[in-house]
Design goal:
Elements (H helix, E strand, L loop, with lengths): L8 E6 L7 H16 L3 E6 L5 H12 L5 H25 L4 E4 L6 E3 L8 E4 L2 H8 L3 E5 L2 E3 L5 E3 L5 H11 L8 E6 L20 E3 H9 L7 H9 L4 E5 L7 E4 L12 E14 L7 H11 L7 E6 L2 E9 H18 L7 E14 L9 H11 L6 E5 L2 E7 L3 H11 L14 H6 L1
Parallel strand pairs: 1-2, 1-9, 2-6, 3-6, 9-11, 10-12
Antiparallel strand pairs: 4-5, 7-8, 11-12, 13-15, 13-16, 14-15, 16-18, 17-18
Helix pairs in contact: 1-3, 2-3, 5-7, 6-7, 8-9, 10-11
């Protein structure tokens, strides 16, 4: 079967679990064949099968504790290449003409930052040529090629970003198509349905809300994919790869925006905190410390500065994996700032998690923060820090209470209720009823 050479362009991305065995992969190929049969010009993006990427990372680290970033990227990219070949074979069996492409062949140009490279440009001539001749390009997600011609990877979960970036580059939205993310759940839920089984599927979500959720731990979409979809107006839908259903549409504006102040919550695990006390900030301590962290490539999460009797204290959170490096970088920055000064303290905490509630209705609602803090406090879960954005409230909690905190917050905002039943009145009203 030749694909249409002039219909809407649809980028269909299939995640790792959805390709983890030949039965699942075959279902995904059926879905592509269906979309082609319906007259779409389809580009397929695939992730590595099942846990392949994790296994390759483990393998590399078992061979050398600090693997060469170029070698590691080359190794990890093979996972997606294998899927590309397999999907092409499955499509050919269904009579769909397809061509397997690595990131390089698909024209995905990135910077040189191995392991978390940024996509700089996509040369889409080859993709357009293939589509014009009725052929489906099957592109390996998660990878590109650097200015030095080396294979790069674009960060864990990056195939989502590959898919949206390709959709933007080939003008999928303008053609009447868009980008579909086919995964192992039936859409974006009010919380991770594997942790909160009663979490509800949202039929739509605002891209600003999805961006916040992705940034605070909802792994269903990579954050940069949502950034690209928003920036380039790519219609984006998340669907179950094995079961038909409407999924969730990610939109610039949602009609239910005014309904519920909170639309979802998420948990970020494995956080640690670095605390610095007694530093004389008058000499530019904040700048020196955070510039040093940036130079070392440490991703800092929330920063808090407090003014106490003993002067200024700073604290910031990072992922466990980066904690030791963050501590060492801070210590050396302080040593450079005030050599030999042992009045400055640097301490490190591990075992923290961040629970966040997100919703664009928060902009105009009153009492959202109070309700969240009250629910956590009633459950006896200590709040170690609080940060907010216009549409998000986050609390740092002990990691061993993290999942409980997620459930408590989900309940506090009645997220399992269908909003069609009317707005949720909240804890106090319920308690009084
Ligand atoms: P894929 O391999 O298809 O890219 P991922 O594992 O990256 O799949 O993302 C899908 C997973 O995201 C789901 O299995 C689910 O556990 C998790 N998830 C986290 N938060 C949410 C949420 N709010 N809605 C849906 N899924 C979520
Ligand atoms: N295979 C890569 C990962 O596991 C990319 C992806 O699945 O999106 O992170
Ligand atoms: Mg993913």
């Amino acid at each position: 079967m030749m694909a249409s050479s002039g219909g809407p362009i649809l980028v269909q991305k299939f995640g790792g679990t959805s390709l983890s065995d030949s039965a699942r992969l075959s279902n995904c190929a059926d879905r592509v064949a269906q979309a082609v049969g319906a007259g779409n010009r389809v580009i397929v993006v695939v992730s590595a099968m099942g846990r392949t990427t994790d296994q390759l990372v483990e393998l590399a680290h078992s061979l050398g504790s600090d693997p060469d970033p170029r070698a590691l990227d080359l190794l990890l990219a093979t996972g997606e290449l294998a899927s590309t070949a397999m999907m092409t074979i499955a499509l050919e069996k269904r009579g769909v003409q397809a061509v397997p492409l690595g990131g390089r062949e698909a024209g995905i140009r990135t910077d040189q930052t191995h392991g978390r490279a940024r996509i700089l440009a996509i040369e889409s001539t080859r993709l357009h040529d293939l589509m014009s001749s009725g052929v489906v390009p099957v592109v390996a997600g998660f990878q590109g090629v650097s200015p030095l011609g080396e294979v790069t990877t674009i960060g864990r979960g990056g195939s989502d970003t590959t898919a949206v970036a390709l959709a933007a580059a080939v003008g999928a939205g303008e053609s009447g198509g868009g980008c579909e993310i086919h995964t192992d759940v039936d859409g974006i839920h009010t919380a991770d349905p594997r942790v909160i089984p009663k979490a509800r599927r949202l039929s739509e979500i605002g891209s600003d809300e999805m961006l916040e959720l992705a940034a605070v731990g909802a792994g269903v979409l990579q954050e940069r994919a949502v950034v690209f979809a928003r920036r380039f107006d790519v219609p984006l839908r998340v669907l179950h790869s094995q079961k038909p259903g409407p999924g969730t549409l990610v939109l610039r504006e949602t009609s239910s925006m005014e309904r519920n102040s909170v639309i979802g919550c998420a948990l970020r695990r494995e956080l640690g905190r670095v605390g610095i006390s007694g530093l004389d900030m008058a000499i530019g301590g904040q700048a020196a410390i955070f510039m040093a962290l940036a130079d070392a490539g440490v991703m800092v999460d929330d920063i808090v500065q407090t003014d106490g009797d003993d002067g200024i204290s700073l604290a910031f959170t990072v992922e466990h994996g980066e904690l030791a490096e963050a501590r060492d970088v801070v210590r050396s920055a302080i040593e450079r700032l005030s050599p030999g000064d042992d009045s400055v303290g640097v301490d490190v905490e591990i075992g923290l998690a961040k629970i966040s509630a997100v919703g664009s209705g928060m902009r105009s609602a009153i009492g959202v923060a109070g309700r969240m803090f009250e629910a956590l406090s009633k459950a006896g879960i200590p709040i170690l820090n609080i940060t907010t954005s216009e549409i998000r409230i986050s609390c740092l909690v002990p990691q061993d209470r993290g999942e409980e905190a997620l459930e408590v917050v989900h309940d506090a905002f009645g997220l399992d209720r269908d909003p069609q039943d009317g707005p949720f009145l909240g804890l106090t009203d319920h308690d009084e009823a």
